[in-house]
Amino acid sequence: MTLILLIALPLGGGFLAWMLGRFHAQAARWVSLAALGAGLVLALNLWAEQVGGEVLPNDGSWLVEFSRAWIPQLGISFHLALDGLSLLMIALTFLVGILAVGCSWHEITTRVGFFHFNLMWVLAGVVGVFLSMDLFLFYFFWELMLVPMYFLIAIWGHERRIPAAVKFFIFTQASGLLMLLAIVGLAFVHQRHSGELSFDYFDLLGTPLGGVTGMLLMLGFFFAFAVKLPVVPLHTWLPDAHTEAPTAGSLVLAALLLKTGAYGLIRFVVPLFPDAALAFTPVAMTLGVVGILYGAVLAFAQTDLKRLVAYTSVSHLGFVLLGVFAWNELALQGVVMQMICHGLSTGALFVLVGALYERTHTRDLTRLSGLWAVAPKMGAMGVFFAMASLGLPGLGNFIAEILVLVGAYSVNVALTVLATFGLVAATIYSVRLVSRAFHGANDGAWKFPDLSAREMVVLGVMVAGLVWLGLYPQPVLDAAAPALSQLLPVMPR
Amino acid sequence: MELGAYLAVSAVLFVLGMAMAAARRSLIYVLMGLELILNAANINLVAFARFKPEIGLDGQIGAIFVIILAAAEAAIGLAIVLNVYSRFGTIRPDDIDELRQ
Amino acid sequence: MSRTDLTALSPLLVVALAAVAVLLLISVRRNHRATATLTLAGLVLGLVSISWAATVTPHQVAPLLIADGYALFYSALVLAAAVVVCLLSFDYLEQRGEQREEFYVLLLLATLGGLVLVGASHFVTLFLGLEILSVAIYVMVAYARSSPLAAETGIKYLVLAGASSAFLVFGMALVYAQTGTLEFRPLVAQLSAIEGSGLALPGMALMLVGVGFKLAVVPFHMWTPEVYQGAPAPVTAFVATVSKGAMFALLLRFFAALGPGEARPLLVVLGLVAMASILAGNLLALLEQNIKRLLAFSSIAHLGYVLVAFLASSAFGDEAVTFYLVAYFVSTLAAFGVVTVLSDNEREAERIEDYRGLFWRRPLLATLMTGALLSLAGIPLTTGFVGKFAVVAAGVEASLWLPVSVLALGSAIGLYYYLRLVVVMLSSLDAGAATESAADSGRTPADPGQTPAWPRAARVGGGAALALGLLALLLLGLGLYPGPLMDVIESSVSPLR
């Protein structure tokens, strides 16, 4: 029931927020906050149970499970399950959700109720994606989160929001349809072998697949996740969508939606198609490295702050792709860390840029300079998150990227060495960002209030999270460990 | 007479009907063209039923249905054509074109 | 005629009697409300009588009609759609000052035609059903005589539908020449018995032309946008659903009986037709500014989707076709229902601009419209999603990779225009109208303050509200919990193969 509640909370809260928001905007905000807070408490409670050693009796990694027949004619069930990996992602989802509500407190002034409805439904879709253990249900949630995200961008975005929203939607939808084909194809291959039509993840695991069929089906899934992640040739929707979305939209996109792609790679692509994934490893790892370097180079060339941060996402998530296909314990731990740390650090940068834009109405790096003197708190935060992004030791991102690199090193030395240059490039663009925006003389004669208490709380939580992950990542690694050790044997190296 | 002769007449009627409908000179012509096609089909149906006695009366009965329904269609069609004429003052299909604007 | 025959035909008889009763009522006394109520009663009674007819299934009535589970399922679908159209029409006609009562006679007759069509097991009944349906629709399309477009739309539909019937009959005659029968089952047996197809293949091809017109698939789709635009909105809803659905039901019955050997060449053609329809329908809809035309193009694409499942030629494919048609009926009726309700006696709510900011003026209607559009786009939570999933599953099961890929591509394109409409409904009335639409709506940019005061805040009548509420329920209910419907469909398509 907990799992149902995890999905129902944002769904119901969103609906309530919409209804109340028609009468009173503030009510919508508080309702959303309360629903997400309750979700976070539930998730943390589950985490405490895991630490206490409560797992399902039949196997070691699953904590809670819920299954009901849904469309029995097609072998579809409403099957949710949660292991350590999902748990971390869900905790992150609720945390980021709360921060998203917090950072749009003053930014969103029109149609507040409907805004929160969409925000909450995106979160519900994301939670559903992290919990679904039936591929039909997974696709259901996968699609469900797109529509409200589209609305978030298309209604509350910046000047060129409609094209950006459409581009986002078409990219994800088209790749999603490929995944749908692959899901159905996989189910029928499984039916041919076992005589039973089923979309259940656990039934489909271990379906014997011929070389070409397996590769094609794997690519169907990979495309969908690669668009989301994003992997380099498929990333072009991302800078536009991030740039045009409202702050909360950028935050949710960067911190959560991209992670659904990473999660999909770990949960579905490799376990369902181990042979094809193994054959695909060199290509995928190369794409990862290309993403790391390409994203970093382009981030360096941007003058629009939001675009800059968006391209750093491309770079950081290249590490995820690299790590997933390296598929050993260290690399996967690194991937999990990276998913969480990138969510916090990049999310925080979007929040900062959003706050800056709210005050200056520009995101143009050539026009911003010397802001430290104007807003010291903002400057300090900017420096902190830029350092986090470049992988300063002591912060979470450092651990994540080092773990990925060490893990990948044992699989492919050359690519790992190349990937290391990504860290160097990250230093360059991060330092450039800080020195341009915050140091130097205040040429634009900017004058605006510093971060408010609310914004400090939002960013403070993220700071605390990154420091914690950097200094004492063990609880997170422990939470994910049983799930990862369960997954690791599917693609032996 | 041979079956072939009936089929030839039918084919000619079909082609004539097609041509009339496609020429779009007047809505009445178009309707008449459609009637010709239906009657071409009728000739076929009746002729086959007559020349292949082993196959029963399906075709002849079918033809009666077609005649009845064609009459109904023509009646409605002419009513609509009248309507068109009273509105547009013409029944040339090409002149009746407000929809595309 | 035996008692069983009458029982099996009871839905047909009820609707036919209702048509006569309504005619008599009108001749005695003109009363719009009474006429509509009687019509509604007739249709609902027809629906109820289906359960009575179900007690004797399967039952062949003469060689002409068959009452099996399949026919009864589609009868129910046709009748239910007619009920919705009837409810929608009442308020729509109430606003208009013309003679309204005869409309209901036509509605009942058209429904009767649909019922004959779905139960046909003989070429004669096929033609009979088709003509009853079409002839009634000719008049319905041209019913709003005060509208400048009515007569023109009527004549266009008449000419094209007439041509399609003519082709169909000529094709029938050729097939008859080859097989010597007009009855489906013996005819199919004959086809597989004879060496070489002779006249049968051109005959079937001609028949497919006729059917293609009715279904409005490429390359016989050109009439759709004009007829959809020119006909009164409730009639458009009827044409889009009942007329196409009944025809498709018949097509499916015929092809399911046909052996794979005879069907193959035709299926190849239909595969091309399906792909062309999906692409053309979606691409043509992209730039459309008129919502009725947009839905016309989208319906072309949807028939293409259904054809993909149809091509699978399997029991699973039949189920997918049927489910998708149900989903299409619900979504299309909901979309046109909203158009109907928003229309007033001046003109119909057909310009995209009419929908600007609808979310903030009429939230319930806008939500329903959004639901219908998302369902047509195949987004989760709606019945269209399950339908699309079933169609894709059927296609993949039959390894129809090319058509299925085209379907995926088409529905990705389709999203674009459905979402465009949704965004228009969501955008704010004042801000958007001035900047975005001045260029394309033809409104002079000089007076941006002139926000559309249209459509006026018309009251939604009780009947229409009931219909729309029902559709909303189905839209969501069948999307979340399609199991029971799938059970019904599974058992009702089982007699086909």
Notable characteristics:
heterotrimer, A: 493 residues, mainly alpha, B: 101 residues, Helix Hairpins, 3 helices, 0% strand
Describe what this molecule looks like in 3D.
By secondary structure, chain A is mainly α. Chain A has helices at residues 2-21, 25-51, 84-103, 112-131, 135-144, 146-156, 161-194, 201-204, 211-228, 237-244, 247-272, 274-301, 305-326, 329-360, 371-374, 376-390, 396-409, 413-437, 453-471, 474-487; strands at residues 62-71, 76-83. Chain A has a domain at 298-493. Chain A has 20 helices and 2 strands. A two-stranded antiparallel ribbon of chain A has the order 1-2. The longest helix of chain A has 34 residues, at 161-194. The mean pLDDT of chain A is 89. Chain B is mainly α and 101 residues long. Chain B has a single domain, classed as Orthogonal Bundle (Helix Hairpins). Chain B is 76% helix and 0% strand. Chain B is built from 3 helices and no strands. Chain B has helices at residues 3-23, 27-51, 58-88. Chain C starts with a helix and ends with a helix. Chain C is 76% helix and 1% strand. Chain C is mainly α and 497 residues long. The radius of gyration of chain C is 22 Å and the shape is globular. The longest helix of chain C has 30 residues, at 150-179. Chain C contains 22 helices and 2 strands. Chain C has a domain at 259-497. The chains are: A mainly alpha (493), B mainly alpha (101), C mainly alpha (497).
